[in-house]
Fold each of these.
Amino acid sequence: MSSPAPTAPAEQPDSGRFGLRLASWYAVVFVVSSLAIVLLTYALLAASLAERDREIVASTLREYSARYASGGLGAIARAVDLEQRTGGRERLFVRVVRGGSETLFASIPPEWADFEVSPLAGRESAWDRVLSGSRRATLEVASARLIDGTLLQVGKSTESRDELLARFRTVALLVSIAIVLAGLAGGFVVTRSTMRPIEGLIAAVRNIIATGRTDARVPVREQRDAIDELSSLFNAMLDRITTLISGMGDALDNVAHDLRTPMTRLRGIAERALASGDPATQSAALATCLEESERILAMLDTLMDISEAETGTLRLERTDVAVDGVIREVASVYEDVAEDRHVAVSQHLENGLVVSADRDRLRQVVANLLDNAIKYTPAGGRVDISTRRERNDVVIEVADTGTGIADHDLPRIWERLYRGDQSRAERGLGLGLSLVRAIVAAHNGTVEVRSRPGQGSTFTLRLPVLTRS
Ligand code: ADP
C-alpha cells in the first residue's frame, strides 16, 4: 500500500505574529488602564486640594466677620497679627475696604507682593482669581460684606498646592514609565508562557502531518489546562483515526479476499467454456458467470451502503412508518422459504407503533434479521417476531430456536464480512448484520443480541418511538 504524500497546509499561520499580537494587547490594556488610574488619582488630588484651600478661605471669612462684629477692625488686625506671629494658620491675603476704594486694613505675605490686587478693591464676588506677575501662581480671593457695609476680602495663593501637584506629576511620570515597562515585560512573559505549549502543539501536529505517522502523539503535561485538554483531544482523535484506518484496511483486505474466490471461479468457468468449444456448455457457463457477477455486485452494493450509513452520507427518506405493516410485509415474503425449511414463523405485534424511518431501509433490516433466523434454525424450529413499546422506544425482537452463536463469535458477528464458524454451510456474505447495525445507528437506534449455542438467538432492535403531539 502506498503511503499518501505529505500535505502541508496551504498557508501556515505564523504563531510568532499571534504571540506578538497577544503581547501587544496585554501591554496596551495594562498600560492604558494603569495610566487612567494615575490620571484619575491626579484629578481627584487636584480637586481635593482646591477644595481644601477654598474651605480655609471661607472659614477665615466667617471667623473674621464675627470678630469684626464684636471688636471692629482692631479685632481683625489682632487676629491677623497673632496668626503671623504664631504661624498657626496658612498664609492668607486679608484686606478690609470701605466705599469701594479706601483700604482700611491689608495684610499680604511678602512673597505674594507681585500679585496685582488693587483692581479687586471693592469688588464683591464669590471667587476672584488674580495671576501673579510671574504668572506662576494664582490668588483666589473671596469676599464678604461686613455688618457696616465694609468689604472683607480673604485670599489664598495656589502656589503651595501647585508645587505639591508638580511633585505629584514628577512622581506620576516616573510611575507611568515604570508601568509601561512593566506592561511590556508582563506582556512578553504572559505571551511566552501562553504560547510555549501552543507552539509545542503546533510543532507536534506539523510533524505528524509532515511524516504521516499517525502513531505519534502530542505530549500532554501534568497541569491539565485548556491546552492539555486540546492536546489530549487531538490524541484521542488520532487514536480514532488510527482505528478507522486499520478497520478500513481490514475491511479492504477482507473484500479483496472475498472477491478473489468468485473472480477466480469466474475465470475458471470462462476458461473451461472457451476450451470446450461446445455452444451448450458455453451458454451454461455464461449463465453461471452472470449469477456470480450479480453476487459480487450485491456484495459491493452492500459494502457501499454500510460505508455510507456509517459515515452518515446514506440518504434516508424518512416518513412515519407503522412497524407492524413492515413486519407483516417482510414475513409474507419469507413465508415460502420458512415453509420449505420447516421453520414455523409467528408474530406478536403491538398495534399503532410508529417510527420515523426510511421504510425500505427498515424493511431491509427486518428482512436480514428474519433471513438469518430462518437460515440458522434447523427444520422443526421456531422463529418469533414481536414488537412492543418500552418507554420512548419501539422494540422489535426476532427470536429463534436455532443453532445459536458461539461465545467467541458473539462480539465479531457485527464486523463486515465476518461469518460464524458454523455458518459456512449456509449462503451469505457476512455483511447482513453490519448493514443492520449501520442502518439502525443512522436511525438513532440500537441493536443487540442474546444467544446460547444450541438453544437459539434473540436480536433486539430499539428505535425512538414517534409520538404525535
Ligand atoms: P451471513 O451472511 O453469514 O449471515 P451476517 O452478517 O448476517 O452474515 O451474520 C454474521 C454471522 O452471525 C453469521 O455468519 C452467523 O454466524 C451469525 N448469525 C447471525 N444471525 C444468526 C442467528 N439468527 N442464529 C445464529 N447465528 C447467527
Amino acid sequence: MRNDLRAGIVGLGIGIPHSVVTNYDLEQCIDTSDEWIFTRTGIRERRVAPHGIATSDLAAQAALQALQNAGKTPEEVDLIVVATATPDMPWPSTACLVQAKIGASRAAAFDLNAVCSGFVYALWMAAQAVETGAYRCVLVIGADILSRQVNWEDRATCVLFGDGAGAVVLAPVDEPYGVLAGVLGADGTGAPLLNVPAGGTREPLSPEALAQKRHTIQMRGREVFKFAVTIMGEVSLQALEKAGIPSEEVALFIPHQANIRIIQAAAERLNLPMERVFVNVDRYGNTSAASIPIALYEAWAQGLLKRGNVVVVVGFGAGLTWGACVVRWV
Ligand code: UT7
C-alpha cells in the first residue's frame, strides 16, 4: 500500500430525464403556488422520468458519459458503486444492472443506500478502495427516481423532489490531488423523521398500505430542516479539519441540493460567500443521491473546477445520515 496514492475524480457524467415539471404545472394539480415553493425551497422546476425509464437507465447514461470524459472504456472499470434509495427492483442491485448495460464485464458491483447522503458515502468508501491500491477504476454513481415514491397528493413533499443520475470515475492520482478527507455519520433514531414505511420486510406491500399511501415518502419537514441546517455546516468543518485545510481555501462548496435556505445556512457556517457555492436546486429540485454528482458535473462543465481547487461536497438525508468529503481537483 502506497501512502501517497489518492483517488482523483477523472471523469464526470449525468443522466437527466428530458421531461420538466414546473411549479406552475404543480399549481394545476395540487393546492400550491410557485411563490410558496420558490420562497420556501428555491425550486422552480424538476425533471421527472417517463414511465419505462428506471434508475439503472439514468445511471448507465451518466456512467458512460463519465467514462468517455475520463478517456476510459467500460472494460477498464473494476468496481461500480451505485448510491440509490430507488433501485430498479428489490434485487439484484442496480449496480449489477448498470454493469450489464454498459458492458463493464470486469467490474464488481454493489448498491449503497444512505438515501440523499448516498453519493458522499459512496465517494468516500470508493476513495478508500482506490487508495489501498485494490481498485484502479471505480464508477461512483448517485441515481434516484424519487418521483415514483412521492405521494403526488401530498403538497408538503411532492413539490420537493426530482429525478436524475450523476457519475464520477475515480482513479489513482498523486498527492496533493484527489479525495483528501471524508467524514460520515448516522443517527438511526431519526429514521421516523423521513422514510418510506411500506414495501420492505417490516410492512410488505398490501392493499391497506397502498390505500394509506404508506409506500410513499413520509416526512416531518420542519424537523428535517432543523437537523439539516446544523449538520451540513458541522460535517463540512469536520472534514476540512481532517484535511488540514481552512474554510477560506474552499474554492467551491457543492452541497446536497434540497433547499436553498439549508444551503445558505451551511455556507454561512463556513463563512463562504454564495459566489463560492454551487446551486442548481432551482432547476432540478432534490434529486436525492444524484444531486451532488449532477452539481459537480455542471460545475465542471462550466469550467468552475480548476486543477488545485479545493472542493467540499456535503450531504444529509434520511437515516438520518450525513457526510462530507474534501477534494483537491486534479
Ligand atoms: O434530502 C432531505 C429531504 N428533505 C428536506 O430537505 C426537507 C427539509 N424541510 C424543508 O425543506 C421545509 O421544512 C419544507 C420546504 C418542506 C417546508 O417548509 P416550512 O417552512 O418548514 O413549512 P411548514 O412545513 O412549516 O409549512 C408551513 C405551511 C403549512 O400551512 P399552515 O399549517 O401554516 O397553514 C403547510 O400546510 O405551508 C403549508 N404548505 C404548503 N403550502 C403551499 C406545505 N407545503 C405546501 C405547498 N404549497 N407545497
